[in-house]
Amino acid sequence: MNKNKDILIIGFALFSMFFGAGNLIFPPYIGISSGSSWLISFLGFIFADVGIILLSIIAISKAGSLQNVIGRAGKKFGITLELPWNF
Fold first, then answer.
1. 20 backbone dihedrals φ, ψ, rounded to 5°
2. Using one digit for the tens of pLDDT, what is the confidence trace for 9-44?
3. Comparing C-alpha atoms, which of 23, 26, 5 is closest to residue 15?
4. Nearest to 79 by CA among 71, 6, 57
5. Where do the DSSP E strands lie in the chain?
6. pLDDT for residue 86 is more than 70
7. Which of 14, 21, 24, 34 is the most buried (most CB within 10 A)?
8. Which of the 8 DSSP states describes residue 32?
């Protein structure tokens, strides 16, 4: 039962990271406001949005768990960041 809960939470988290409201509203706004420099702004958006999310997913998968990644930042930071996950 706990595995199904983990799958559901991870699935919703990945969905919200890649398909959040910012990913639906912000790209057209960037395209309109950047004018002829749309390609540079598009590449910057992809790097800043999708690239950082992919790097975090890869880091968590290589480390084995989120706690292993958080633990490298220090004990106090790890406890503070881990609190919302303990529900």
1. -75, 175
2. 888 887 877 777 677 777 788 888 888 888 888 888
3. 23
4. 71
5. none
6. no
7. 34
8. H
